[in-house]
Amino acid sequence: MTFGSVLIANRGEIAVRVIRTCRELGVKSIAVYSEADERAMHRRLADEAYLLGPAPASESYLNIGRLVEVIERSAAEAVHPGYGFLSESAEFARAVQLAGAVWVGPPPEAMEMVGHKVRAKELADRAGVPTIPGYDGEDDGEDRLEREADRIGYPVLVKASAGGGGRGMRAVTRQSDFVEAVRGARREAEAAFGDGSVFLERLVEDPRHVEVQVLGDQRGNVLHLFERECSIQRRHQKVVEEAPSPALDPDLRESICNAAVRFASEAGYSNAGTVEFLIEKGDEFYFLEMNARLQVEHPVTELVTGLDLVYLQLAVAAGEPLPLTQDRVTLRGSSIEARIYAEDEQGMPSGGLLEAFSPPEGAGIRNDAGFEAGDEIPLDYDAMLAKLIVSAQDRQAAVRRLSRALADYEILGPSSNLPLLRRIAANSAFQAGETTTRFLQDNSLTEPQPARPAPREAMILASAAELHRIPASSDPFAAGPWRLLGATILDYDGHSVEAERARPGRFRITAEGEESVVEVLHYGNARIRALFDDEPVEAGVLLDAEEVLVSLRDETHTLRKPTPPAVDETGPSADAAASLIAPMPGTVVKVLVEEGQEVEEGQLLLVLEAMKMEQPISAPHTGVVHSLPFGEGSLVPGGAVLVEVNET
Fold first, then answer.
1. What is the model's pTM?
2. 328 catalytic, yes or no?
3. What homologous superfamily is domain 134-202 in, according to CATH?
4. pLDDT tens string 332-350
5. N or C: which end of the chain has fewer CB within 10 A?
6. How many angstroms separate the CA atoms of 77 and 402, rounded?
7. 577-647 — its CATH code?
8. Which of 66, 253, 293, 422 is the catalytic position?
9. Please, which residues have CB within 8 angstroms of residue 275's CB and are 6 or more apart in sequence?
């Protein structure tokens, strides 16, 4: 390896991942950070770190000028872009090269060729790689697109020409929705990529999503590192990935991997990249797109091939030839990755202080994390905290290991997607490897889950933690039975918990009519270790003024404390009006109704853009629009009422 220093133009988990490989190689790592990431893990781990600017990505991680200034100030010899942000920007790649550093990625010309969806499809045709029937002509006016959609036949997919990740993409099942879908896709594509052009494809319904990892050097050699299954997705964003795909037999695997190599060779591609395919029922596969960068899910490929992709990226960028040939790349066992996000059950980002963060440990478990307990999770960027990757000798064993690891994972503070991931791992279709891009919807895994009563053990541990933090000398009720917060220690669904301090750290606690003795051995950093009726137990317990979070075994329980009644509780108990709330801060980009207008249930009312994705807001019932507080172009805070509909 010839680089003395590498600047990582990214943040979070991927920045930490690249830093760790640099450490192994003895290469100096240089981090960049925004004001929101001043105390971030990647900054702490790097050998050097430079402030880019304020929290907004446009003023920090997406600001090419400021990044180039840091490259020059730090004298970085190479720049690794990670994934996301500017990782697929040919403009940034050229700016890095003009600043005298080496771009750890494909040539800018190849990035431009594969990054534009229409040109990439033309490239696939030349390479003999199957593509989905559609229309990608220069005339993308609404009239022409509507005629082409009629020719292709519904359902069709409207897609942004200049990007991916689900942005600027709309599935249309009927002609009456087509024009608005095109307009929405254009707006989203313009906001995300600065290019509002779109094209059409026949919608391949219920496909599998399989991608092939490719790697090329600067001497024209290209090889594949086999495939990954990426079908489990939420809003076009991958959630769980694995290698190899359980859907491919040896013949299909060879066909699809060879097609990926042909495509990359035709593009003159070097460094790491991923060629993505849709597999239709009957084993027909079609080229989807190419991602000209390292993928989030690259660890599963590393674990089944035994290769370090970041090391190989750096070696190829330094001009070294590929250190192996195709016949030396072999598959070993099975690996599955679950992305850990700070988000609520609806998939909306959840920020704040990460009070407790305890990834699982053990044989065959790898954790790629960008945060630690005590870190602040900003809402300015992608909500991914970490990746849990497991590996085993076969898929069945890997699934079992994933289930156990997810059960042991603990996060307190921001909400996380751990409940969703646990439901996926427990699903029989997932365990059988029968997944498609509609897996989550078809199995109702993202629907709101019924609240489960907190177990007695959780209430008792929460009560013990509450009392333990009050010194015995300060406890006005220490002489005998007592109750905290006036009437109860803890109130959850009408449950009352009574406690008596037997001696410092030891309590007799009665819940649900049964008494237990709890001795607190240690409580700190939102974790409690105790003897529960002489049996050892450990759990996460986060105390708050209004509620207590208890993470026990593989579930997190919210125990709400009683609140005083409102001064004025008069008025109707229910209202015929429904208000639709902004799930997060955003901008109203389209208003399709007006006050006083009659609307039907499910009718699109307005479109909110948040995190570069459009959120359609539809009528919850038939009625009349009572209020529209915000017009097009308005900035709205999270929790704001966007529209009120009076039911009729």
1. 0.83
2. no
3. ATP-grasp fold, A domain (3.30.1490.20)
4. 999 999 999 999 888 889 9
5. C
6. 39
7. 2.40.50.100
8. 293
9. 211, 212, 214, 259, 260, 263, 264, 287, 290
